Amino acid sequence: MAENKNQHIDKDYPLDHVPQSARVGLISLSAVLLGCTFFSPTMVAGGQVAASFGLNKFLWAMVVGNLILGLYVAVMSVIGTKTGLTSVLLARYTLGLGGAKWAGFLLGGTQLGWYAVSAAYVAEIFVKAFNMPNSYLFWAIFWSLVMGFTAVYGFKAMEIVSYIAIPLILLLTIWVPILGVKQAGSWAALAQIQPSAEPMAMTTALTIIVGTFASMGTQVTNWSRFAKSTIVSFIAALLAFFIGNGIMIFAGGIGAIAFQQGDIVEVFLQMGIIFWALIILTINIWTTNDAAAYAFGVAGAEFFNKENKRPYIIGGVLIATVLAATGAYNFFVPFLVALGIFIPPLGGAIIGDYLFVWKTKMPNLKDVEFKTFRVANIIAYLIGTLVAYLTNKYGIGIPPLQGIAVSALMVPVMNAVMKNDAHTVKSNSSVEA
């Protein structure tokens, strides 16, 4: 009976530390992470920021926003490698068993939302490419279900699809800026084009850019836990979330400025490359939706304390399909702003707990009697979230960065104020990659 039970255990270790025997190198991890961030809807975000800013101001926002995102995710990535744990399991240490349910709901729920937005985006491309205005519902349902299929097969399936998608999307991100500069006449002429959309606050622009992958970046430990070393995970995260995401923002922004159009699908139509964009973008979004489905599957496994993530991937895909069919794409920018406010402080709390409370020496899951709630850390997270929300609302500073920093720094402060808020550790052993 025991042998038969083991056949159903998920080999991606959703509720355990990843052992050294399952670790991978830089190429494998980079392929998966770049497959996540080479995400064509990010070009939409870049296009909408650029359409409100013009070239020079847009480039500044792009570099600063992606640098914040890249460094934040790289730190989270290293924690994942050192512990071998997913983000929702790390949240057990930081927020307690009950608090981790909130983290799983937040992170899994936002990835489910991303999946729906992405499926809706592909459907929009097919509708416009084939000039079939009444076919949106069919394409949304079709692509949502097809993309969910490979996510069921875990890390290896994602790696294989990523190897196909990355070269193709790189081609598109080179092609779009070249055609954009050609449309404007020169780089200097491009810089002279005035913004075509309503003005946008810099704080909102940075929140949108960080928000493109705030949720996936906070969950980077789902994949960095497979890295052989912290150097591998740090480099792979920077490549994907600073360079990779930056390239996508840049390409969308240049196209939007040149063609005076914030909708990247309309830009493709004006460029005359909609057919090739259709093929490349579909494969590209497939990789990111695989990662999103994988993430909400892992979150579901933790939420219900089950070893197998597949039922939660399947259930999440069905819910996302309903959302996509009802027009999730229309809420893209507000969705990104919300992600940039509520998700980074959660990562900040995990970082603060790892550095200041556990002092980088987290014990094995089996050696910890977890409290239901770590109230001190929950308060730290809520304060960080409030700071991010208020600074975004009133246009002060860089809201996602402030949310991360305040949340992380409030962790040791609140733990000092609230005594006896730590978990009970049965052993002195710590997890080291």
Structure description:
The chain has 433 residues and is an all-alpha fold. Helix content is 74%, strand content 1%. The chain contains 19 helices and 2 strands. Strands 1-2 form a two-stranded antiparallel ribbon. The protein is globular. The two termini are 33 Å apart. The N terminus is likely disordered.
Q: Concise description?
A:
With 433 residues, this protein is mostly helical. 74% of the residues lie in helices and 1% in strands.
Structural class, please? mainly alpha
Percent in strands: under 5%
**Major sheet: size, sense and barrel closure?**
2 strands, antiparallel
Mean pLDDT: 87
Question: What separation lies between the terminal Cα atoms?
Answer: 33 Å
Number of helices: 19
Runs with pLDDT <50, length 5+?
1-9
Shape type: globular
Task: Spell the H/E element sequence.
Answer: HHHHHHHHHHHHHHHHHEHHE
Rg is 21 Å
What is the helix content? Answer: over 70%
Sheet with most strands: strand arrangement: 1-2
The tally of strands reads 2
Ordered list of secondary-structure elements with their pairings:
Layout: H1 2-6, H2 26-37, H3 41-53, H4 55-83, H5 87-129, H6 136-151, H7 154-184, H8 187-192, H9 202-211, H10 214-218, H11 221-224, H12 230-259, H13 264-271, H14 274-303, H15 310-325, H16 332-342, H17 344-357, E1 368-369, H18 375-393, H19 399-417, E2 424-425
Antiparallel strand pairs: 1-2
